[in-house]
Design goal:
six-stranded mixed sheet; 9% strand
């Protein structure tokens, strides 16, 4: 990690001992076990925005999420959303709008439901946002981790959770289009396409 990205700060201890941060992203590549569960609990106890994805969605405590005073963003795909709701994946897929609203209300969080049409909902009574830049190319391993990191960086920059999730999804989809060149993409291709996607938005 340090060899490739020397500007990165790496800390081997628990999150709460890592020093001052503006936001946390927890879950991608975390795995199972007590250490992973403790890491999720530690991050959720922080008084900064937190994005929970991947393994973190399985390990989170629902009541802890509901009672947080800092913003929380959950970014499940349909299978993870079904597990969080205690229902079948098919039910989520056939009623994505209902599912994302229910998740946001139940967890009192901002929810980004990933899929061919990504939806963003808040616990408050606000309209659900629909991301128009999604592409089937994003159905590749690691692509969701890029979305998590991108959205987490926007949270750290000070965007409100609904805006961070919306902008993250928009740039993520646009980056996949830049990285695809008409062919399937890898997660690294999507990450590499973010600067071009950002330039497009700035130019517009």
């Amino acid at each position: 990690m340090i060899a490739r990205f020397p500007e990165a700060l790496v800390h081997a201890g628990p999150p709460s001992k890592a020093g001052r941060v503006q936001a946390w992203v927890v879950g991608p590549g975390l795995g199972d076990g007590r250490a992973a569960e403790a890491a999720v609990a530690d991050v959720l106890a922080a008084d900064v925005p937190v994005l929970v994805d991947a393994d973190g969605l399985r390990l989170l405590d629902a009541e802890t999420v509901r009672t947080r005073t800092a913003p929380t963003v959950l970014t499940p795909h349909a299978g993870e959303a079904a597990a969080l709701l205690g229902t079948a994946r098919e039910e989520v897929e056939s009623g994505r709008l209902t599912a994302v609203r229910e998740l946001a209300a139940r967890y009192r969080a901002t929810v980004l439901l990933k899929g061919s049409t990504t939806l963003i909902a808040e616990a408050r009574d606000t309209p659900v946002r629909v991301n128009p830049t999604g592409t089937a190319y994003l159905a590749t391993a690691g692509s969701g981790d890029v979305l998590s990191g991108l959205t987490g960086s926007l949270l750290a920059a000070g965007l409100a959770p609904r805006d961070a999730a919306s902008v993250g999804a928009y740039l993520h989809g646009l980056a996949a289009r830049h990285g695809s060149d008409g062919a399937p993409v890898s997660a690294q291709d999507v990450a590499d396409g973010i600067p071009a996607a950002w330039r497009d938005v700035r130019a517009g």
